[in-house]
Design goal:
There is one protein chain. It is built from 29 helices and 15 strands. Strand 14 and strand 15 form a beta hairpin. The strands form 4 sheets. The protein has a 5-stranded mixed β-sheet, with helices on both faces. Strands 11-12-13-15-14 form a 5-stranded mixed β-barrel. The chain has a 3-stranded antiparallel β-sheet with strand order 2-1-3, covered by helices on one side. 47% of the residues lie in helices and 12% in strands.
Length: 710
Amino acid sequence: MNLLAYILKHTQLPEKGIKNTVELLNEDCTIPFIARYRKEKTGNLDEVQIGQIVEFKTQFENLEKRKETILKAIEEQDSLTEDLKNKIAQTEDLTSLEDLYLPFKKKRKTKAETARKNGLEPLAKIIMAQNHRDIESAAHQYSNSEVPDTDAALEGARHIIAEWLNERISIRNLIRSQLERSAMLTTKVVSTKKDEEAAQKFRDYFDWSESLNRCPSHRLLAILRAENEGFIRVKLELDTDFILSKIEQRTIKSNNSCTPQIQMAIEDAYKRLLFPSLSNELLKKAKEEADDDAIKVFAKNLQQLLLGSPVGEKRILAIDPGFRTGCKVVCLSATGDLEHNETIFPHAPQNDTKGALKKLSTLADAYKIEAIAIGNGTASRETERLVKRVHFKNPVEVYVVSEAGASIYSASKIAREEFPNYDVTVRGAVSIGRRLADPLAELVKIDPKSIGVGQYQHDVDQNKLQTSLDRTVESCVNSVGVNINTASVPLLSYVSGIGPKLAENIVAHRNENGPFSKRSDIKKVARLGEKAFEQGAAFLRIKNAKNPLDDSAVHPESYGIVEQMAKDKKMPLSEIIGNKEILKSIQLKHYCTDEIDLPTLQDIIKELEKPGLDLREKAKVFTFDQNIKTIDDLREGQLLPGIVNNITNFGCFVDIGIKESGLIHVSNLADAFVKDVNEHVHLHQQIIVKVLQVDIPRKRIQLKLHKGDL
């Protein structure tokens, strides 16, 4: 099977689209570039479909590499037959491939290997032939210094038979099938640890049993975490007698003195070799599937967070709240530059409320503040109430902003380079303010795993997680576009075709030569060649450029077509941009070429209607219920405003303005069955919830999504 056939089988995407996409990927084109600017070649495949092609292309290449390794290893043993070579070549998955390799795999010292060295393989063959009437007398002939008696000879022969059975693909597949259908996942608490405080969050799994194929991914990951932390023991269980009878039916062909020996070998093979190996294989497969589910949820959450609503270029006063150490206050320009910082102490123990109110009013006036960002950590609610008491001369909008990951940023190399003369508290407050202005531009500076919008992110495959999150960030950055004259190195590094090194070169060029005035100037950046320009230029925007197309998603390779459209309409280019009536009257079929057809031309018209439009919604002001300050203030039946702050497969968590987030279980999201939580809520969505249950000792709050108003 070749690469194209392999991807076709796994995706059901059009053959031509797959073939051309693979060619583009082999030419080092990025997913965002292919999806946006090569629609004619791919047949209009989107980023998700192109991502599938990338995934199965990688799988196929890994499979082919493993085949090469296995073929070489078997060849070195002089055991490679033409039949085996063909079987390996035709194998389409790693599990079947490893089964073929199993008999040839170098093994550590085994019972079967010892028996072979003691000359017992001929006896094992006699037993498996199943036509000897007195196997004990036959076994007696194999006694020697290492095999003292008949029993030892028969035992050694059974070890060899057990290994043969273990290597028989039909038997392995039989057990796999039964495990996938009927395996029970069971847990038992480690008695010496069940009373530990850290174990209590796992107490639901101290004595647990359920069918593995019905265990949802989030529960499996929770159980495996409990096992890794040493609080429980986990195993799979299967109906042993049923499996043994099935293996016997496939193995035993007569009823004589050999039969009991084969039965014992079957039981030994199953309990010592087959079941431990294949149950671990299934548990590993279930863990991988659970990882994939968790990573998908994390990626969706991250996408929603990165595409969160910006307030845009406004002058912002940001506050990182605190009690004893005070509230760090910074004033930022409309472009996010730090203009002022100081600390106020409105809360206990200093309680300088009067001084804090006066200071905030003075700063807002002095720096012409348009919006205030308050971090949602310790003392957030108290600080929000304080700010709303300030008498501002001009209208000021107040927002509470997620602090998740701000401490990671403030201590990072990026933050030290941005603000070498300020401590972590100032950097943290700046990050909070910039998140309000543009969440995407600020959050790309933080490792996505530190943002805290997933579950079990430390338990899943870290390489898979990193790949998925990097792809998500890349997709978000390129879907919004980047102002090349203000973007940071981390933001630029996610632009299609750019990467960290070229991002540094762009900023260095900008610092040395001033802002870029047109897109073609990007080619002057050190080491930024034609390929990088092709991949990245359309995602890099230049505000107030002489050519208005430089601040749009129109690719430079299509400028000629747009200019021809304007010429045909006998109008300057600047006058057709934004003119919906004129744009709708353009006959696109007149501009089709071998390279550019209707899909790209339709995208161009859409972009010309609203060039540079930010696809993100604008931020909205939000206020928590001022009467709810702690979990003790909650009562069943209350309706409260809240903000979705995390989404999982089993529901979503909601910030209702206190330390503990409440959970809306999937069963409480809608009256009908909920297949995908994201179809009902999205991250940072402002919603109304109803309090269903409050468990104060366990700090748990059960909520229901309320469809109406407060």
